[in-house]
Design a protein that fits this description.
By secondary structure, this protein is an alpha+beta fold. It has one domain. It is built from 1 helix and 3 strands; from the N terminus they run E-E-H-E. It is globular and about 35 Å long. The mean pLDDT is 72.
């Protein structure tokens, strides 16, 4: 199954931040797919220490 979501990677010289627009609880727990998706995009997770979640099931 393919799961789509809106995410933006803000890259800076020393570190990056991943911004997840989220979709609330409409698709269940998809957070387990985050790290494999980042690696699949050939990104080094050690350079992305910050994750900004803009929406969550708690907000609904």
């Amino acid at each position: 199954m393919t799961i789509s979501f809106n995410a933006f990677l803000i890259e800076a010289s020393a570190r990056s931040c991943l911004v997840d627009a989220g979709d609330g609880n409409r698709r269940g727990n998809t957070l387990d797919h985050l790290q494999p998706a980042i690696k699949g995009a050939v990104l080094d997770t050690s350079n992305i220490p910050d994750l900004l979640m803009t929406s969550s099931a708690l907000a609904e």
